[in-house]
Design a protein that fits this description.
By secondary structure, this protein is α/β, with parallel strands linked by helices. The chain is 36% helix and 13% strand. The radius of gyration is 21 Å and the shape is globular.
Amino acid sequence: MIYLDYQATTPLAPEARVAMLPWLAGPDDEPGYANPASSYRSGREASVAVDMARDQVAALLPRGGTVYFTSGATEAINWALIAGSQIKPGGCAGLTIEHAATVQCLERLRGSELPVNASGISLPPDAATLPENGVVAVMLVNNEVGTIQPVTEYAQAAKARGSLVLCDAVQAFGRMTIPDGPDLIAVSAHKIHGPKGIGALWVRDGVKLPPLLVGGGQEQGMRAGTVSPALCAGFGAAAELAASRMDADATHVERLWDIAVEEMHGWTINGSATRRYKGNLNIRRDRVNGPRLLSDVRNVAFSLGSACASGSGRTSHVLRAMGVSDSDARSSVRFGWGRYTTEDALCEGLGAIKAAARLQGVG
């Protein structure tokens, strides 16, 4: 299998796996099974491992905030928007191309939408469209088309209105510098070669969110429930590795982008070709049947859009927000690559896509 779906998830880094193993140990391998909330030695050692991971994750985020571990970015986003709306009740708003976790949460909160242009870039912030004393959600890198949003500009405009800013940084975390401006930042481990089942919400100092879960004093009283040292250790190791490899990974990703764009000559790029993360390529071609490509090319892992919306039968809300027709949206496919993708694998995978498209009578 050639894996070209890095936006959905990334392969677990060997270093993250090694970091997790001691905390998955059985009774003969203390302190692996200890509860980090326990006061005896092995519990304290587990607690130290959790705090070390917290520092490793925080090193990739702005200074002046606290990292709280969650089950993933979806939980972090829900916590930020729902709790944020309790302390800032003036309403909420978010980009039309936000991840489904944000979009559906905003729908429940009856929030408003902030439009994007045909390139998938949000329009310049207009104070009149932003809530006063509310919450504004602006993602950094879009998960479907890879476009980079002007988070700093929105943060400045929202703060002038007395509103909090939530940034979904899932697709940017570990791949680029996270701008200092948001009050709340959601991240995930499995998008940076860490384990699934853990993410985090970064909360700026001075922002007093209500707890997500009650019932214990874990996560400084903000999220009750036993913390997994193994997941934390894996997340921390992946974050530390991403920090040390950020430049090398970016160079590799950009080289693969150049290869992919050349290989897929004649296809149209969805979203800006320049203001984007280059590990994401969302493209379309007239008369291509995207779902059929997905069915026909069994040896390549790629997608039609967000993994969270796969199987829904609906065209991408991101492409619709960009003004892409339903017909063109159904002709669109998304590829993602990263640290462990080789040039040969990329060319072989894209070659299989082109061959299947030719069988549909395209190019």
